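ok trying again, last paste got cut off:
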Amino acid sequence: MSNASIDWIHSRLKFGIKPGLSRIAYLLQELDNPQDKLKTVHIAGTNGKGSTVTFLSNILQQHGLSVGTFTSPYIEIFNERIAINGHFITDQELDDVVGVIKPIVLKMDEDEALSNITEFEILTAIGFYYFNEKSVDIAIIEVGLGGLFDSTNVITPLVSAITTIGLDHQDILGDTLAKIAKEKAGIIKQGVPVVIGSPIGMPDEAYDVIVQVAKLKNAPLYQSSADGRFDLNLHGQYQQENAALAVKLFEQLSETLSLTVDQTKIAQGLKQAFWPARMEALHGYILDGAHNIPAIKRLASEFQGEQKVNILFSALQRKDFHEMIYLLQEIPNVSLTLSTFDYPKSIQESDIADISGVTWLANWQTFFDNPKHADETYLITGSLYFMSQVREFLLKQENR
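nice, full thing came through this time. structure:
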């Protein structure tokens, strides 16, 4: 049954991205505004949102709270985008909520001003409705794209966060760091504290814009540090920074919610946090969904040793994949293999015809036929949709 629900949600994808909050506001009003009954945290940023959500969720769970998480895109199954304490919404629960929302959407389609509500807007409404029905103590809401006009931007959270600012989705958000920062800073609410990521991921140009918006909104501004030394199962320096941001967010929440801060519980929450395809070790391969230039730069900085690095990379054509490929080629002792995958507008061989020094595979699966050498590193990176397919493939191989 739930496949029908998911198929219906996906069928709205053709309406793409439509700026403005009027459609989501109407839908939520028809549902009696569940978002207004929730305590929330709102997280925007170019990279690091999902990892920050999972770190913070785990810390809050360790302190005894029931925590809803709304994230995107999914890596394993659709249901993971809406979860409570790490347990995904079940197929039956999804069916039940869609049963409530679908008639409202069909009615909206008859009104030109409200028609063509998108997949993400519907998913946002499902998340808010579900979390309210389940009476979660707090919901951590990840922005889908940008911030200002994102359908999640209908909440007044207890605290907001902006993880990093980099050039991504420039066709929608703007072609400078300042313009992108202004879009992301659109989630800052009057008088609501905002925590931003470490200076490493927050260029001055972006920082200045966020400071300006925070002042305008009278929102207290805090910045996390880059020198975290946490014991994590999520590897990479950037995960230390995401963990530091989560801890800073928790400190803000603990004041608002009158929670007793327990350093042991914070450490346990950080240690237990897991987020697939973020420097994830799986059967001798490292999977990392670095899907834009800032993320690729950070990833490349992790592989600057003497060891040979064998990389399999794929991306979507809408990304600046040429620049990403050149950055990967600069890694010392790198062997770079490119491929396509089963997703609309994934890169094709003709797209990389002008790039030398790389290998092209028509079928990425054949990359895994080659024997591995113990003294070499094997990294799979690029689009999160690509990571999802590779991860599923590797897990199936394991089950055999």
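cool. The radius of gyration is 21 Å. The first strand starts at residue 40 and ends at 44.
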